[in-house]
Design a protein that fits this description.
Length: about 400
């Protein structure tokens, strides 16, 4: 049997799995890690060239010298956005496909012997991230990036369907399964009918997705706890009239994949000009300092830690210090759930859309499989407990089930 490689290129983390000729499935690990951070860092090497790092090495390189580095994250979030054509890094233009291809070479480089002669299956969300995502464009760009990395013959599989294949290994009778796969940028749902066989048969009944997941929840914490300390919601007086400090700055600041755009000289000049007329100029100066000092990654890491803690406890402390900016703010789970209520509503609507696409009601679903880090958020889990009952829910493989399932899909 031909080996199959499943590749889950994620917004935050990426995973590679293999189904070997003997039928066994395993994650291909980088050192001791199952997951590889979906991050690139470019920095000058001191000899006139530019050094490129990926994964945890990219984060370490960036933290060593953030002011003379360029950290690239959330690349997947741009795939379906026509507005992104290229960016310049130390004077060189990079298309999105070229950036992702560079990352893929780091991700897949250690696994050359396993890749030789293997069938490759690449995951994609049901719906890519963005207000009006072009999903066909997203898939073309994704495959173009793999081609740029040297992999020109790849199959594509839906990520929630892949997670369902992994879950179905434990089924011994015909079962209809709703799979909910929560990534960093998207939440995806598939309704599948599994018949154990042999041969094992899988029938896709319905799919739906929404460009909301863990990153959107991080945004809500930043927007409600951090941004007001940086001037959001305050006013400035250019003449005899009070005007609000432009809220668009804080939309960009709270989203990692947009923050780099704020380093544009014009944007920083605009913020400085408003600060001169602001009722709280020190807050805007904090904002400028965070942008100029490339402190966004440290902030987002602190916020993500609070989000994870709120999945286990009713309150968590957001602790972040940079220069003279000190944030020590308790965050209550009840407040967090109120902030993410609009996102939860869109997730609920996508679940309903998947059921409608399958022409099934909740009672027809035998099992519900939740996977991905955001599935651990209690308010997210309650969506499924309310619709299906806790006894039908199962969870697991939060970070590896999609890659393993993609390898299984390729074999089937």
């Amino acid at each position: 049997m031909q080996p199959v490689i499943g590749i889950d290129f994620g917004t935050t983390n990426s995973v590679v799995a293999i189904r070997r000729a003997d039928g066994g499935v395993a994650v291909l690990r980088h050192a001791t890690e199952d997951v590889f951070r979906s991050v690139l860092c470019f920095r000058r090497d001191g000899r006139g060239g530019v050094r490129e790092d990926a994964g945890s090495a990219a984060i370490e390189a960036y933290l060593e010298d953030p002011l003379d580095s360029r950290l690239i994250m959330s690349m997947k979030s741009y795939l379906a956005q026509r507005s992104f054509t290229e960016t310049r890094i130390f004077g060189r233009p990079w298309t999105l496909e070229a950036l992702i291809a560079a990352f893929l070479r780091h991700l897949l480089g250690p696994f050359g012997p396993d890749l030789a002669g293997a069938r490759i299956v690449v995951g994609r969300p049901v719906q890519f991230v963005g207000d009006a995502p072009d999903d066909a464009l997203g898939e073309r760009r994704l495959l173009g990036a793999f081609a740029g990395a040297g992999f020109t013959d790849c199959q594509v599989g839906l990520e929630p369907a892949a997670a369902g294949h992994r879950f179905a290994l434990g089924l011994d009778r015909p079962t209809i399964v709703l799979v909910a796969d929560f990534g960093g940028g998207t939440s995806d749902f598939s309704v599948l009918r599994f018949e154990p066989g042999p041969p094992r048969r899988v029938t896709a009944l319905g799919h739906a997705g929404v460009g909301i997941a863990g990153d959107a929840f991080d945004y809500r914490i930043i927007d409600n706890v951090v941004s007001p300390r940086l001037g959001k919601g305050s006013n400035y007086r250019p003449g005899n009239t009070d005007l609000p400090v432009p809220p668009s700055w804080y939309v960009a600041f709270a989203r990692w994949h947009l923050l780099s755009l704020m380093r544009a000289p014009k944007t920083l000049r605009d913020i400085a000009a408003v600060a001169e007329m602001a009722e709280h100029p020190e807050r805007l100066h904090h904002l400028i300092r965070l942008i100029e000092d490339e402190a966004g990654y440290a902030l987002y890491r602190a916020v993500s830690g609070v989000k994870a803690a709120l999945s286990r406890q009713a309150e968590a402390m957001l602790s972040f210090h940079h220069e003279d900016l000190v944030i020590e703010a308790p965050v209550h789970r009840a407040d967090f759930e109120a902030w993410i209520a609009p996102d939860l509503a869109r997730i609920e609507a996508a679940v309903d859309a998947a059921l409608a696409d399958a022409a099934l009601g909740p009672d027809a679903v035998d099992r519900v499989f939740l996977t991905g880090g955001t599935s651990l958020v209690p308010a997210v889990r309650r969506i499924f407990e309310t619709r299906f009952g806790a006894d039908r829910l199962a969870a697991g493989g939060e970070f590896v089930s999609v890659a393993e399932g993609l390898a299984l899909m390729g074999a089937d």
